[in-house]
Design a protein that fits this description.
By secondary structure, the protein is mainly α. The chain has one helix and no strands. It has a domain at about 20-55.
């Protein structure tokens, strides 16, 4: 019976990997959240500026609801 995961499966779901305790998993998760928050506080404006520029470049003036990134 396959278990449905809340998050996508890891790229390498190796059977020989060890499982973490609940406490260890929470500690790692909290650590990664701190790293991500620090990264966003340092580089967040650059990231948002990049996406804003990309959105403006992809805007179709005649049909603004269409995006050049759309596959159709």
């Amino acid at each position: 019976m396959k278990k449905n995961h809340r998050y996508p499966r890891p790229m390498c779901a190796c059977p020989e990997t060890r499982t973490l305790s609940d406490e260890a998993a929470v500690q790692i998760h909290e650590f990664l959240e701190v790293i991500a928050a620090n990264f966003l506080s340092q580089y967040g404006q650059r990231i948002y500026r990049h996406y804003a520029k990309r959105a403006k470049r992809n805007l179709n003036a005649q049909q603004p609801w269409k995006n050049s990134d759309e596959p159709f």
